[in-house]
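Predict fold of NlpE C-terminal OB domain-containing protein; 134 aa.
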Amino acid sequence: MNFKNILAACCCVWLFGCAQDMNTASSAESDTATYPKSVLGLYTYGHEVSVFEPCGQSFAWWMSGAENVMQPLIAASTAWMDKKQQPYQPVLARLVVGKPVKATEGFPADYDGAVTVEKIEALFADQQVCPANV
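Predicted 3D structure, encoded as tokens:
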């Protein structure tokens, strides 16, 4: 076996070893955390948008859930849209979410993962930013 074949084989092994499982979200947190879990962050609703950005993190999840769970979040975000006369207004919430999965199609595929909201623990309808200490 010559040097090129050995190098090619090593590269293939390295690449396959580094590949991520396509069924889980790309954030490192989703790989190590226990779910369902409680997460504080900003929920934003709008035309073709249902997104949650956990406070202190650099990723965003597409959100879905039962209508009775999602409706208070949608109403709070919509109230800010009406007040500010601008679309896509965030609202602070602490949500219990399921494990993120990486969507492969549709709008959810544009985000770091898709999660299901299981429960709203707290909705801070008067707040649009994460606390500074998070």
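The chain has one domain: 21-124.
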